[in-house]
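Review form for a predicted model. The reviewer records the input and the model, then writes brief findings.
Reviewer: anonymous (R2)
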Amino acid sequence: MVYGLSAESLYFAPNDCLMSYNYLPLDRKWLHFGQVKNLLDYEQLVSITFDAHERILACREYLDNKMDDKERLFYGINTGFGFLQNVKIDASQIEQLQYNLLVSHACGLGKEVPKDIVKLMLMLKIKSLSYGNSGVQIATVIRLMYMYNHDVLPVIYTQGSLGASGDLAPLSHLSLPLIGLGEVYHEGKKMKAADAMKKFGWEPIHLQSKEGLALINGTQFMSAYGMYCLKKAEHLLQMADLVSALSFDAFDCVSEPLDPHIHSLRAHKGQVHTAENLRSCLQGSAIAQQAKEQVQDPYSFRCIPQVHGASKDAFEHILGVFVREINSVTDNPNIFPEDDLILSGGNFHGQPLALSLDYLAIAMSEIANISERRTYQLISGQRGLPLFLVKDAGINSGFMIPQYTAAGIVSENKQLCTPASVDSISSSNNQEDHVSMGANAATKCLRVIDNVEKVLAIELLSAAQAMEFRRPKKTSPVLEKLMSSFRKKISFNEADRLLHTDMVEAIDFLIRYRL
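Model under review:
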């Protein structure tokens, strides 16, 4: 049973009831990748379950009872934070302590975090709190749900987290609206959080012991970026196979390297899948079936299964790490009411995510790397294709410079793929003496993936142009469908024109195209 299914629900206003089945339930149950994708793709709402509600209440009651013991010190509950861990805080100052924690740690700078990633951060914070091991009030969790479901999205900045002690600065900005501070976007408009609260009649939350720490400890910034990157990467890996198949046929390549016998001898899952995928994409192509003059093709064509496949295998590993992370509790200390324990540890440390984000950036960068090489071959004037894929080369430069752009982007990716996770720096007066730098890994991973979109789009633009020079021969039904859809957006290039416009259109097409 989930909150949000009736007009009487605590979590949805009456006019939300028509949408009440379009929600994601959050509790201890395992959250899957498909659910995360659906949350964004179908603009779902979020709701904790009755089980989560009861666990949150029970944990808060347990913590309140523990606070009756005035002599015991519990880190972050009745003490200061970080290096100030031994400073005891009087019971009368607990709310001020939590308030101060949020305002003092909201030190983010840089660009604003994209809207979809902010939504994922909110959802993942609610998910983490729903386990009932964090000690927050139910009112705090309900307010976070209200914010998500009513499109009140905090303004968060990309810089400020070291990826250990949790994503302190970004999560502080996420939490500021709870106490009436900070800025939010509502219905696409940026405004003070206090103004948005006034619209809905929300009062600031009076934070209780542990709540500030529960809110800003955790890996939700890194996790949200990771899940968003994985969502984009999954589509790009699919499109990379499709686009490379078009290039493969446009370059009149030998199909022998796709034979399943070869891949059975080195049975990496991604490699086998990619070879099978390319065979399927090329099935029925008149170009593929014609006799070839060459015996072998360059590696950027011949080794597509090996290169794309390795990136797919990396994707599967990284996805496993992130799905486990989003189903975890990562604030500190952790509270176990059933076992009468309050334990301080380090689940907020982002090392698993930092390593995985660096790995994902490298794996996806290679998809762009080999893509740019195929583009280079297509414009080189070989295999009966005109130099730079244009009639009257000389008076026309054709597709010469899109390859320059792709090459520049690929080199930028190589620079971005220097691992963030090998770095560390001491903070909090050396109390926090090893950090993951996972937040930096996260933001640059997204930059790499955005770059991969651009490079693949340039390959698609070039391969479609090259395929026109193979007419009247036809490629496979799958690739003819791709060509037909693409030509509805971008026409054949007869002579030089503003290719920036074509490239932007190709990127948009690549992002939106579904197999």
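Findings: DSSP finds 19 helices and nine strands in the chain.
Further findings: Strands lie at 23-26, 45-48, 109-112, 152-154, 157-159, 183-186, 189-192, 334-336, 341-343.
Recommendation: see findings above.
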